[in-house]
């Protein structure tokens, strides 16, 4: 059984297709693993045992009938609890949606089901995806499998922890300011934020509409690519979805190479606040890229310094509006309806009781930034910064094929350390935010352990919009070289649970 | 509440000059909602036309209805507006239980159409130009049923019940620039503008614009300024004035109320007001503690619209004849006065008369039946003329039967009654009810003889030259034939038998 | 530039329909002040002649045909309602406009 859970998604799919394993066996192995370790990790908010086994049986039946199976048929997956799942609870990590059972599937959910992927359950997250530690979940924090007293990153800490603790070989995350990449970095896994519009947002509970993007999480670059291809593509239900072919990510992941590529290093992604071990591993990665045949180019992107500020105006503004629908009238929590109170009072009492502090902070921040008299100085200026950052990227990509940086300035911090210091928490996304603002694509993959704490460090690769394949081409090459250097995947150095 | 003694309309106008602004919301007649594929069909069971998007469920997203955009552009063009080369939707943020997302997807500083005008014709034929500020797209809200109060109104209700079938139906909001210079005719201009706009919308085929069904709703903003003063006074905003007559009454009432407040040294506060159908008055709405702050920002879930110029020109080429131009043409063709044409317009009979003429009736009888018997019936039943269970073709057939002498006017009314009662088409009703005029000369002759015999004195008078007395004998014949005789023919026969020249 | 007060926090909370507790007002006032103080840097670019970016992709005119798609059933629509009556969502009294 332990064998099965260590397999990659590509290996599992191949074995199922070849009849060496059944999807039911694979699913049961992962359910058993969840049973064994998730009490400690708390990656999942909801396990859909019956649904998972039913899907696995359907895949096995299809195989027996001689029907062709998709490249991930029968592979288990952990789904971030931000995607709607018909008939299965969806909470977004919030009390306000406790008990909500959506009457519809998100497009991502629908595509996963159609591909025969087995959804094991829904993973923990910072409430409404607001946070970098998963401590903001209304249902308690998730532990980092490398050290259970530390955070697994956020907001998608449940998904990254599920991967790192072998509870699932695949997971789905969403990335508004780094919520796929930063958890991947601090758990030693792989996470990709596709180009904005590459993966449908329909049925993905909105935090910040112009920044949110769903994407694949896995333990290997190839697995991420296989999942990327399953969930990406045009969706007529999402007006911001790109109507163009999905970049050839799987092909790129199978032919990793950086020979002849120009790789940019941005001056602004360094300096104060960066942990020494992170910088060390990053510098080694750059040397590795050079040794693999890449040319390194130094870049200056001055507007990136304003990225964090712009982000903390745009995301809260959009969220203040997106979360207005949680008003106790049509679904979700209702508090204080004693027959005498007005709808307005019941809404206010419910939101007070149902939202956590970080959500309230951001709603108020956004309300402030949009209110008359402040709009131009705050929201308006933040949108100008967005233009400047996009231009900096455009200029950079005239000189280089991809950009690399540390994914996050530090390794996983202890649970509780930044819990009531929002500004300190926000710094975790310093390197990931510019990509969300510009809408282009980025990946995080492991590049070693920081010497001072023995915790994983992530390397971020950034590509232009709709050139997501470059992430996989470079990522696969880097991954192969590191695994060769280490003698095994980094995750094998994690303590067993 | 202090009741202000109104100033007479004449006195108000002697001292002040009214300035109006009219905001009209029109529900488009698209098959589906503005941002989702739910049906817009009226009369469906509650909450049967909702989906994740129009219920505002978490994760749902909007997609723009192409016909919604097309309709907005058509309206803009018909109002002589410029059409934006690039514009966006915006979110208007405020909480209200009838609005599922607690923001309305609307347009803010980038409306799809702007800077236009609509020429409206007053009853005496004078043309008044109303300048249009903008026409923008937005969505309707759900419908609330207030329970537990005495009156079914929101005030005093213990709770409310919401049906979101209407939530998300496309709306076009058309806003005028300040209407100045109408003077005492301001209320008439307001009414004529709304009437003209309704005709225009119907002619474009983008909505049925039925005010009584709430498909078209008007807000009347009004202020007064002393004669000779440039600066506008403080305005009041009278919401949801939902008939043509009410628009005129509301404007008139507000002129009188403002004048009363101002001339007694008071000040007008900017507020929303409610119009009361019963007595034509307005009352103050709830005064909000703080000014609304809608926190508009560009809707991130929708991408901008950039109507291609060639497409806009194609649409322009398909615009129908303007209702006012068409009406003037018809007025001349039909040979009626401005005043009569206005009555026809107000009755919503223009298209019905046109269709009846197209079906073979002459203009005079088409107009006569629709504006006479049928208008009376629609008034009695409180429904629109178009809702009556009779078609223009059937009315044309009635007119044809009369013209051929098969029935007379009195019988025609009975035929119409039969058609309305669902007894079939005019010929069937004539047949079933036996309504043909007695044209059998023999039978008619016998009836005439009988009438002469039993009214000898009158017959003598007529023989003696008092021809006018013939009416009494005609009446007697009509009575014995139970109305089914051609009165003109009866008169002819009587005079003939009595040897008198007509 | 900022200096956000307890009263302003209370005003924001009202606009956002959050019934904050007294101690939360102070707590959030301090934190919001810090955050706004930090992010106010963006106004450095306020005077620059740069178009704002509201959408990360240069898409326009995304529309759908005016064709009816299946709705939810009323049962599905109401399945999560905190309260219902007469096949409608039952909500507390709405403060009247009159
Ligand atoms: Mg409006
Ligand atoms: Zn709908």
UniProtKB/TrEMBL annotation, chain A:
Keywords: ATP-binding, Ligase, Nucleotide-binding, Protein biosynthesis
InterPro entries, per the entry: Amidase, Amidase_CS, Amidase_dom, AS_sf, GatA
Annotated PROSITE patterns: AMIDASES
This enzyme's EC code(s): 6.3.5.7
Active-site residues (renumbered): 80, 155, 179
Enzyme kind, highest EC tier: ligase
Residues annotated as domain Amidase: 25-471
Catalytic activity: L-glutamyl-tRNA(Gln) + L-glutamine + ATP + H2O = L-glutaminyl-tRNA(Gln) + L-glutamate + ADP + phosphate + H(+)
Role played: Allows the formation of correctly charged Gln-tRNA(Gln) through the transamidation of misacylated Glu-tRNA(Gln) in organisms which lack glutaminyl-tRNA synthetase. The reaction takes place in the presence of glutamine and ATP through an activated gamma-phospho-Glu-tRNA(Gln).
Family according to the record: Belongs to the amidase family. GatA subfamily.
Quaternary structure (record): Heterotrimer of A, B and C subunits.
Protein name as annotated: Glutamyl-tRNA(Gln) amidotransferase subunit A
Organism the protein comes from: Streptomyces maoxianensis
Automatic annotation (TrEMBL), chain C:
Enzyme Commission number: 6.3.5.-
Reactions that this protein is recorded to catalyse: L-glutamyl-tRNA(Gln) + L-glutamine + ATP + H2O = L-glutaminyl-tRNA(Gln) + L-glutamate + ADP + phosphate + H(+); L-aspartyl-tRNA(Asn) + L-glutamine + ATP + H2O = L-asparaginyl-tRNA(Asn) + L-glutamate + ADP + phosphate + 2 H(+)
Domain of life: Bacteria
Quaternary structure annotation from Swiss-Prot or TrEMBL: Heterotrimer of A, B and C subunits.
InterPro entries on file: Asp/Glu-ADT_sf_sub_c, GatC
Species in which this protein is naturally found: Streptomyces maoxianensis
EC class: ligase
Sorted UniProt keywords: ATP-binding, Ligase, Nucleotide-binding, Protein biosynthesis
HAMAP family xref list: GatC (MF_00122)
Family as reported in the entry's similarity comment: Belongs to the GatC family.
Name of this protein: Aspartyl/glutamyl-tRNA(Asn/Gln) amidotransferase subunit C
Function: Allows the formation of correctly charged Asn-tRNA(Asn) or Gln-tRNA(Gln) through the transamidation of misacylated Asp-tRNA(Asn) or Glu-tRNA(Gln) in organisms which lack either or both of asparaginyl-tRNA or glutaminyl-tRNA synthetases. The reaction takes place in the presence of glutamine and ATP through an activated phospho-Asp-tRNA(Asn) or phospho-Glu-tRNA(Gln).
Gene: gatC
């Amino acid at each position: 059984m332990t064998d099965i859970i260590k397999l990659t998604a590509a290996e599992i799919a191949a074995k199922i297709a070849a009849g060496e394993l059944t999807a039911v066996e694979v699913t049961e192995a992962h359910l058993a693993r969840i049973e064994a370790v998730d009490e400690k990790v708390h990656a999942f908010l909801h396990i859909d045992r019956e649904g998972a086994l039913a899907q696995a049986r359907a895949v096995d039946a299809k195989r027996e009938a001689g029907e062709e199976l998709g490249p991930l048929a029968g592979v288990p997956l952990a789904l971030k609890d931000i995607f709607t799942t018909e008939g299965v609870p969806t909470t977004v990590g919030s009390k306000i949606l406790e008990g909500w059972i959506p009457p519809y599937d998100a497009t991502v959910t629908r595509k996963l089901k159609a591909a025969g992927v087995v959804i094991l359950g829904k993973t923990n997250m910072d409430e409404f995806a607001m946070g970098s530690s998963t401590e903001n979940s209304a249902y308690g924090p998730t532990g980092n499998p490398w050290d259970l007293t530390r955070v697994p990153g956020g907001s998608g800490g449940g998904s990254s922890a599920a991967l790192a603790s072998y509870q699932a070989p695949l997971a789905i995350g969403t990335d508004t300011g780094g919520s796929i990449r930063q958890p991947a970095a601090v758990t030693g896994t792989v996470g990709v934020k596709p180009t904005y519009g590459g993966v449908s947002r329909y049925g993905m509970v909105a935090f910040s509409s112009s920044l949110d993007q769903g994407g694949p999480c896995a333990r290997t670059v190839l697995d991420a690519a296989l999942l990327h291809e399953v969930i990406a593509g045009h969706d007529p239900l999402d007006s911001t979805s790109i109507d163009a072919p999905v970049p050839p990510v799987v092909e790129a992941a199978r032919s990793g190479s950086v020979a002849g590529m120009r790789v940019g290093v941005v001056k602004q992604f360094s300096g104060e606040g960066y942990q020494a071990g992170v910088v060390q591993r990053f510098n080694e990665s750059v040397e590795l890229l050079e040794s693999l045949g890449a040319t390194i180019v130094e870049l200056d992107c001055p507007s990136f310094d304003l990225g964090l500020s712009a982000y903390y105006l745009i995301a809260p503004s959009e969220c203040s509006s997106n979360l207005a629908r949680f008003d106790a009238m049509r679904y979700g929590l209702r508090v204080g309806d004693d027959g005498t109170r007005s709808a307005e009072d019941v809404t206010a009492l419910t939101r007070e009781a149902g939202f956590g502090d970080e959500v309230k902070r951001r709603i108020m921040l956004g309300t402030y930034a949009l209110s008359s008299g402040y709009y131009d100085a705050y929201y308006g200026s933040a949108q100008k910064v967005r233009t400047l950052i996009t231009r900096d990227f455009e200029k950079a990509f005239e000189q280089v094929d991809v950009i690399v940086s540390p994914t996050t300035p530090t390794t996983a911090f202890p649970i509780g350390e930044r819990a009531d210091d929002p500004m300190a928490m926000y710094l975790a996304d310093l390197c990931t935010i510019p990509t969300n603002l510009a809408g282009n694509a980025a990946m995080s993959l492991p590049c070693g352990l920081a010497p001072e704490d023995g915790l994983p460090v992530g390397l971020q690769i950034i590509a232009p919009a709709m050139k997501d394949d470059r992430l996989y081409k470079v990522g696969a090459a880097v991954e192969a070289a590191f695994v060769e250097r280490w003698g095994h995947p980094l995750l094998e150095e994690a303590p067993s649970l | 509440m202090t009741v202000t003694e109104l100033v007479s309309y004449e006195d108000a106008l002697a001292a002040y000059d009214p300035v109006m602004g009219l905001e009209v919301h029109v529900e488009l007649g698209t098959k589906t909602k503005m941002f989702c594929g739910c049906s817009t069909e009226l009369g469906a069971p509650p909450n049967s036309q909702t989906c994740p998007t129009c219920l505002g469920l978490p994760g749902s997203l909007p997609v723009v209805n192409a016909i919604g955009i097309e309709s907005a552009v058509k309206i803009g063009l018909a109002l002589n507006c410029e059409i934006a080369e690039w514009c966006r939707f915006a979110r208007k943020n405020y909480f209200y239980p009838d609005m599922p997302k607690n923001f309305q997807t609307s347009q803010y500083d980038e409306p799809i159409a702007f800077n236009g005008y609509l020429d409206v014709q007053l009853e005496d034929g004078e043309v008044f130009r109303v300048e249009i500020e903008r026409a923008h797209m937005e969505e309707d809200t759900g419908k609330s049923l207030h329970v537990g109060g005495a009156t079914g109104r929101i005030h005093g209700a213990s709770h409310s019940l919401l049906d979101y079938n209407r939530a998300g139906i496309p709306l076009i909001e058309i806003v005028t620039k300040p209407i100045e210079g109408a003077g005492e005719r301001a209320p008439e201009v307001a009414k004529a503008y709304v009437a003209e706009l309704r005709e225009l919308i119907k002619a474009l085929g983008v909505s049925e614009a039925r005010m009584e069904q709430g498909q078209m709703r008007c807000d009347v903003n009004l202020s007064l300024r002393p004669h000779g003063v440039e600066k506008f006074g403080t305005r009041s905003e009278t919401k949801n004035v939902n008939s043509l007559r009410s628009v005129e009454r509301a404007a008139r009432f507000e002129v009188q109320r403002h004048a009363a407040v101002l001339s007694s040294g008071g000040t007008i506060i900017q507020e929303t007001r409610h119009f009361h159908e019963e007595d034509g008055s307005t009352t103050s709405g709830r005064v909000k503690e703080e000014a609304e702050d809608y926190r508009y920002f560009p809707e991130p879930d929708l991408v901008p619209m950039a109507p291609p110029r060639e497409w806009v020109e194609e649409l322009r080429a398909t615009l129908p004849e303007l209702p006012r131009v068409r009406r003037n043409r018809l007025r001349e063709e039909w040979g009626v006065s401005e005043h009569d044409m206005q009555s026809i317009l107000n009755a919503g009979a223009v298209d019905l008369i046109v269709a009846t003429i197209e079906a073979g009736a002459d203009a005079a009888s088409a107009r006569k039946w629709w504006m006479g018997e049928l208008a009376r019936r629609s008034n009695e039943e409180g429904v629109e003329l178009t809702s009556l269970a009779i078609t223009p073709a059937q009315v044309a057939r009635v007119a044809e039967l009369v013209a051929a002498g098969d029935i007379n006017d009195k019988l025609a009314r009975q035929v119409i009654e039969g058609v309305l009662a669902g007894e079939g088409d005019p010929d069937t009703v004539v047949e079933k009810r036996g309504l043909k005029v007695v044209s059998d000369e023999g039978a008619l002759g016998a009836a005439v003889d009988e009438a002469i015999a039993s009214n000898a004195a009158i017959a003598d008078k007529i023989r003696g030259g008092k021809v006018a007395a013939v009416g009494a004998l005609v009446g007697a014949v009509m009575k014995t034939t139970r109305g089914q005789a051609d009165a003109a023919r009866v008169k002819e026969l009587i005079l003939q038998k009595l040897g008198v020249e007509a | 530039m900022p200096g956000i007060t307890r009263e302003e926090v209370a005003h924001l909370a009202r606009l956002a329909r959050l019934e904050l507790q007294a101690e939360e007002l102070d707590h959030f006032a301090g934190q919001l002040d810090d955050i706004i103080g930090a992010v106010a840097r963006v106004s450095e670019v306020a005077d620059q002649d740069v178009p704002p970016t509201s959408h990360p992709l240069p898409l326009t005119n995304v529309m759908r045909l005016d064709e009816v798609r299946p709705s939810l059933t009323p049962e599905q629509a109401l399945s999560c309602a905190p309260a219902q009556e007469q096949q409608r969502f039952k909500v507390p009294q709405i403060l009247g406009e009159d």
